[in-house]
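[stage:ingest] chain + small molecule (5'-deoxyadenosine)
[stage:ingest] validated
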Amino acid sequence: MQYPFRIGIITYGDEMKENILEMINQAPLEEPKRQYYFCELAKELVEEKSREAGRKLTFCVVTFGCQMNARDSEKLEGILEYIGYEKSEEEASDFVIYNTCTVRENANLRVYGRLGNLNRLKRKNPHMMIGLCGCMMQEPQVVEKLKKSYRFVNLIFGTHNIYKFAELIVQALAENSMVIDIWKDTDKIVEDLPVDRKYTFKSGVNIMFGCNNFCSYCIVPYVRGRERSRNPRDIIREIESLVKDGVVEIMLLGQNVNSYGKNLEEPVTFAQLLQQIVKIEGLKRVRFMTSHPKDLSEELIAVMAAHPKICNHLHLPLQSGSTEILQKMNRRYTKEQYLTLVDKIRKAVPDISLTTDIIVGFPGETEEDFEETLDVVRKVRYDSAFTFIYSKRTGTPAAVMEHQVSEEVVHERFDRLLKEVQKISREEAGRLEGTCQEVLVEGMNEQDESLVTGRMTNNLLVHFPGTKEMIGTLRQVSLDTCKGFYYMGTER
Ligand code: 5AD
Ligand code: SF4
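[stage:predict] done
[stage:export] C-alpha cells:
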C-alpha cells in the first residue's frame, strides 16, 4: 500500500518541530493507513537529515534471540528501507536498532555491554539514532535502568507495538528526548506493512503471537502477552503473495503453533490451517516452529504424514525427562507421555528428524532427575538438541522455588548432556549417507566458491558443486559423505 500523496512538511529552523507536531495530529486513525502516513512524514525527515549530512543515511538492525525476533527485524528493516535509510551490517550506522531477547539473563547482559559501545559511536556521529525493542523492553525494571543510565537511547518500544515503528520514528526524529512506548498487552494485529525479507526464496510467516502456557521458568508469556492467532485468510493471502514473489519455503511461526486458532471467532486447528496451506500452488515446502508436546494432536500427525510438502522435521521441546521436574515446570506432560508421542510420530513419519530444547539445573533437579533426561535423550536419539542452563527470570514462579541447583553441579550436568547429545546427533546425521535427497539451495559456500550450500527437508545442510544461479532452486543431490553435522554431495 502506498500513501497517495507527499505531505510536504519540510520547513527549516524552529518552525519545523511545530509543523511536525501538527502533521502528527492530522494522522488518520485507521491502520495500516496511519503507518503509511507516518512513513511519508519520516521519508521527508530522513531526506532532510541526509541533505544535512551530505550523504545517504544508513541503518543496522541487530537481532537477538529466536525466529520470531528475526521475523520482527525484517519488519523493522522494511520500514527503515521504505523511509530512505540504506541497509548496513556495521553498527557505526545512522540508525541502530537492537531487537532484544530476555529468555535468559545473559542475553540481557550482552545488550547492556554493547550499548556502551554504541554510546561511543554516537558521540562521533551527531546523526546517529539508537532504538531498542523486543522482549527485554517489556520488563519494567529494564526500562527504568535505561531511563536512568542510558539517556543516549532515542527510542524504546516493546513487542506489542512494532507495527507503530514508523510513527515512533517520526516522534523520535522530531523530539530531542527519549521516546518510550511500551504496551502491557494487546489484542491488535496490524497487517500489510513493508517487510524486507532476508532471503528471496524462503520466509517466516507469523501465524500467532504470545503464549498462554506459563511454563514456570519462562518469561515469554509476560513479555509477549496472551495468545492471539492471525485469521487463516490473512495467513493464506500473505503466503500466496510471498509465493508470487518467488518464495518456495515458508516457516510458520508461533510460540506454540499447536494451539493455533483456538481463540478465533471461527476456531480452526493448526492441522486444518496446514491443510489449506499445502494446497497453495507454487509453494514447495512448509516448516513450523515451535510445537508444545501437550498440544500436538493425532490430527496433526496424520496431516504431516500425508503431505509431502510438510518438511521432515519436528522441533519438540522436552525441557526435562523427569516427570517430577516437568510437573514443577508446568509442562503438563509426563516422561512416558512424551515418549509415547515420539513413538506415534515416528510410526507415522518413519524418517522424521526430531530436535529439541532441554533445560539443565531447574530448581530441585536431582541427579536422578537429570538421569531421566539423559534416558529420554538416549531413547529418542534427537538429530540435534539445544541445551540451556536454567536461568532465573524475576517474576516467574521458578525464580522463588526452593533448592536452586549450584553452579558447579549445573555445569557438570550440562557438559555431560552436551557430550551425549553431540555423540548421538553425529551418529544419526550419517544415516542418509549414500541416498539422494531434495535440497533447497540457500547460497554459495562461504569457504569454497565452487560449492553451493543447500538445506534438506530434515534441516541438515549439504555442500555440493554448483553456481549462484542455483540459489533458491530445489535440486536432487546424492549425499556422498557425512562430515559430522553436514554432508558433501553431488547433484544428480
Ligand atoms: N532458562 C533457561 N532456558 C530457558 N528457556 C526458556 N526459559 C528459560 C530459562 N528461564 C529455553 C526453553 C525454551 C527455549 C526457547 O529457551 O528450553 O524452549
Ligand atoms: Fe515459554 Fe512454555 Fe510458552 Fe514456550 S510454551 S514460550 S517455554 S511459556
